[in-house]
Specification:
Blueprint (H helix, E strand, L loop, with lengths): L4 E2 L9 E2 L4 E2 L7 H9 L3 E6 L36 H10 L7 E6 L9 H12 L4 E8 L6 H9 L5 E9 L3 H6 L6 H13 L3 E8 L6 H13 L4 E6 L2 E2 L3 H7 L8 H13 L6 E4 L9 E3 L6 H15 L17
Parallel strand pairs: 4-5, 5-6, 6-7, 7-8, 8-9, 9-11
Antiparallel strand pairs: 1-4, 2-3, 10-12
Helix pairs in contact: 7-9, 9-10
Length: 332
């Protein structure tokens, strides 16, 4: 996996139906096609590491971090290699498919609103000054959104699109405590409402496969973010990375990973209970091969995406069906 570049899953909104040789119906509102419609052409996303930390690691809340989070803060680790944001952008551009000439800069590693406002504005200004950048995506926690930081982010609009990628993981407070998140579902809701009031697009991060969760929790989480009227969601499969609390549980036999089929079933259930306008930014995890301990199928992203699309077709189901949304039109 390229550590400087992320992109929407390929063919993330329609797929060729091998039985009929033509595109299947539009089963979910995928990011790739949504971006092309919104901006008139391909858009890529470059991941950045600003060298920040997290209150769940520096002692403000905890020093252990979230159960699943690796020492790089689920990011690239580029800042630790001494690369400036501009250098990270340049390296990301060098690796891009040149069909894309428009870019989002994605502040991914750790908590990207957890610093002095002046430092945050300087790093966001630096990334947005790069040619071709049309948008800013900021990954953060719901308990790290002071009003002055929201004001800075809102100030980039309408010249740039701004996405606030807000970590939820689960709507169950019991699960959030078990994975050491350090916030509640109510904290997430309050932060999302404040950000939406500023005109920011809010994308929730959720994880399928968290310890102790099943169908009921998946349904609750989907419907929780749907009621908040969020703009998008990133669905991650829970995988075990080296040097994490989850790795310790796995080694003691206290955590059992989902099978690929179990994940696919739950991902489809989740999609069925999301409002159709919500954009699906991601459908599965994307681990670094060198860090992945289990399950091995998480390293086969294209296969997992294909199986999700296949199950949607086989069940003749779609995003929002569980909420009563009408069947999409056929894409002939």
């Amino acid at each position: 996996m390229n550590p400087f570049l992320t992109s929407a899953p390929p063919d993330d909104i329609t797929d060729l139906d091998p039985r009929r040789g033509r595109p299947s119906i539009l089963r979910y509102n995928g990011l790739k096609t949504w971006l092309e419609r919104r901006f008139g052409g391909p858009v890529a996303k470059i991941s950045l590491d600003a060298g920040l930390t997290c209150p769940n690691r520096d002692g403000a809340i905890s020093t252990r971090g979230c159960l699943f989070c690796d020492p790089k803060g689920s990011g690239t680790g580029a800042a630790g290699r001494g690369l400036t944001l501009t250098e990270q952008m340049q390296r990301g551009l060098e690796r891009l498919d040149r069909r894309a000439s428009q870019y989002f800069c994605y502040f991914q590693s750790f908590t990207n609103t957890y610093a002095e406002p002046s430092r945050l504005k300087a790093m966001w200004d630096e990334a947005l000054s790069c040619p071709g950048v049309i948008g800013l995506a900021v990954g953060t926690r719901p308990d790290c959104l002071p009003e002055d930081v929201l004001e800075i982010l809102a100030g980039y609009q309408p010249r740039h699109e701004v996405w606030l990628e807000l970590g939820l993981q689960s709507a169950s407070d019991q699960t959030l405590a078990a994975i050491n998140r350090g916030h509640t579902a109510a904290d997430f809701a309050a932060a999302a409402i404040r950000a939406k009031a500023r005109g920011l697009q809010v994308i929730a991060h959720v994880i399928i496969g968290l310890p102790g969760e099943g169908d009921a929790e998946i349904l609750d989480t989907a419907r929780f973010i749907g009621r908040l009227g969020l703009d998008g969601v990133k669905i991650h499969s829970l995988y075990v990375s080296r040097d994490t609390g989850l790795a310790e549980l796995l080694a003691r036999g206290e955590y059992h990973c989902l099978t690929q089929d179990e994940f696919v079933r739950l991902a489809v259930l989740f999609l069925e209970n999301l409002p159709p306008p919500m954009v699906i930014h991601r459908l599965t995890g994307d681990p670094e091969p060198a860090s992945l301990l289990a399950p091995s199928w998480c390293g086969r992203k294209a296969e997992t995406l294909r199986l999700i699309r296949q199950r949607l077709d086989d069940l003749d189901t779609w995003q929002g069906r569980g909420l009563g949304a009408a069947r999409p039109h056929d894409q002939r």
